[in-house]
Amino acid sequence: MSEQKRIPQHVAIIMDGNGRWARQRGKERYEGHAAGVEPVRAALRAAARNGVKYLTLYAFSTENWGRPEPEVDALMELFCRSVVNETPELVRQGVEIRMIGDRSRFSEKVQRYLAEAEERTAGGATLKLILALNYSSRDEIARAVRRIAARAAAGELAPERISETTIGEALDTADYPDPDLIVRTSGECRLSNFLLWQASYAELWFPEVLWPDFTEADFDRALEEYARRDRRFGLVK
Ligand code: FPP
Questions:
Q1: CATH number, domain with residue 33
Q2: Best substitution site from 13, 14, 18 to test ligand 1's pocket, by max atoms within 8 Å of Cβ?
C-alpha cells in the first residue's frame, strides 16, 4: 500500500553535523546537540503528516563513548530532559517511543528515563519513534549471534536451520520493517555502522543541510527524492 503511494513506511535518519553547526557559530559542541532537538520535532511532525509509520533516529553510537566526557555527559542530560519534556506531546500525537541498542551501558538514571518514556507512550498508533542509543550494527549483530549460538548450544536450534529470518528475529529491530529510506545530513556519504543488515535495499539520501538546520521542508524533500527512486529489490521491472 505505502509502496503504491510512494511513501516510505520506515525512514531512518543519521542526524549529523551538530558539531560543525556549533563551530560555525563559535559555540560549544553540546550547543549544537541542543539545537538538534527542534529538528527531531520537525522530522516527527513531517513523518506523521506524510503517513510514515516508523522513524528511526541515530542518536548515540557505541563509538560516541569515545568523545570528550563533557560532551557525552551533555548528551545524556539532553536525552533525559528531552524524553521527559517531549513525552506529553508525543502521547498527544500518538507517537510510541521505542529503542534499539544496548542500554545496559547507560547509567541507571538514563535507563529509568528511557524506560518511562517507553511506558508512557506505549500504544501510540500514529507512528513509532525508534531511538538508536548506544547502537551500532556490528554490536547488534554480535549480540544477535551470541543469542543464536546460545540457542544452538542448548540444542534448541539446529545450525542448518539458521536462516535470514532467524537472524532478523534476533536483531534489535525484530519488531520493525527494514528502513525504506535512510537520510544522513551534513553531506557525509556513509552509513557509519547504522542498520547495515536492515539497509540491504534501502534508498539512501545525503543532503548537505546540517542537522540543527533540518526542517519539515527537508523531510518533505527526502520523501520527494524517495518517490523518484526506482526500487527493484534485485529484480527486473
Ligand atoms: C552527530 O553530530 C550527532 C550526535 C552524535 C548526537 C545526536 C543527538 C541529537 C540530535 C540530540 C537530540 C536527540 C534526541 C533523540 C532528543 P556530530 O556531533 O557528529 O556533528 P559533527 O560531525 O559536525 O561533529
A1: 3.40.1180.10
A2: 18
